[in-house]
């Protein structure tokens, strides 16, 4: 399922902003673009589209591939390296995630909400790494899976209601309550439990148990999840896993505080 994006024409009005909107035109379905595509999508003239492309290529944010097509450029790889090093959740969380993997043998994944997109930011592989369809940087559905649910459960009533109204069709499509009162109770129960176990919600063969990394001032930094094959659920103590994941998330939160 692809994340719903705001049309680029609604995002920016400045010339610089419109040029940077070019980067939002690339996704899993459109990995390359022509200058003509870009001009059409941004609703600018063809010369302006070519100018945007030229400037982004010079900055290393785009690169030319074949048949006059362009894709995201190598500078983004460099920037991602700096993002990883500067990310406080990864800096404080990776050592704790590694301990959790050693304790359980399962993969441990950190996730966060960036704007309206739920992204995995890091994965520590277990003894038998799971085959995950999602990885760092690929947007995940917001209403399926353990990590998204514990993050959304942290929302205060007003932003949760706004999310409910804005993405109601997607919520219903994902099998969640269609009425606001039921939807609110659903997430309140997850918040009270402090964790969530998803079984086959995102990928049929996988289960995940997640807990939120809470901020001292309210809200969350993100979530960490243990990922395992659904077949393993019959032979593992999920209550103990929940305790371990919640404790690890709490320790990361304490370090960040």
From TrEMBL:
State the UniProt keywords alphabetically.
Answer: DNA-binding, Transcription, Transcription regulation
What InterPro entries does the record point to? GAF-like_dom_sf, HTH_MetabolicPath_Reg, Tscrpt_reg_IclR_C, Tscrpt_reg_IclR_N, WH-like_DNA-bd_sf, WH_DNA-bd_sf
Q: Which residues form the HTH iclR-type domain?
A: 13-74
Task: Tell me the Pfam families matching this sequence.
Answer: HTH_IclR (PF09339), IclR_C (PF01614)
Family matches, as SMART domains = HTH_ICLR (SM00346)
Q: Where is the IclR-ED domain?
A: 75-257
Its name, as the record gives it, is IclR family transcriptional regulator C-terminal domain-containing protein
């Amino acid at each position: 399922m692809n994340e719903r994006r705001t049309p680029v024409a609604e995002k920016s009005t400045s010339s610089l902003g419109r040029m940077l909107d070019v980067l939002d035109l690339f996704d899993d379905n459109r990995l390359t673009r022509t200058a003509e595509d870009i001009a059409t999508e941004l609703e600018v003239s063809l010369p302006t589209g070519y100018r945007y492309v030229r400037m982004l290529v010079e900055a290393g944010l785009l690169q030319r591939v074949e048949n006059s097509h362009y894709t995201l450029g190598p500078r983004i790889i460099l920037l991602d390296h700096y993002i990883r090093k500067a990310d406080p959740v990864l800096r404080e969380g990776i050592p704790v995630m590694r301990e959790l993997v050693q304790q359980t043998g399962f993969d441990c994944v950190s996730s966060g909400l960036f704007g309206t997109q739920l992204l995995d930011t890091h994965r520590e592989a277990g003894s038998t790494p799971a085959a995950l369809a999602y990885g760092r940087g690929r947007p995940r559905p917001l209403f399926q899976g353990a990590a998204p649910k514990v993050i959304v459960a942290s929302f205060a009533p007003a932003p949760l209601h706004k999310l409910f109204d804005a993405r109601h069709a997607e919520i219903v499509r994902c099998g969640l309550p269609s009425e606001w009162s039921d939807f609110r109770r659903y997430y309140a129960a997850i918040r009270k439990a402090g964790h969530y176990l998803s079984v086959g919600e995102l990928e049929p063969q996988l289960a995940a148990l997640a807990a939120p990394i809470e901020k001292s001032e309210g809200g969350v930094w993100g979530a960490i999840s243990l990922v395992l094959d659904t077949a393993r659920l019959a032979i593992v103590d999920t209550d103990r896993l929940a305790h371990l994941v919640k404790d690890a998330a709490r320790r990361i939160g304490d370090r960040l505080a």
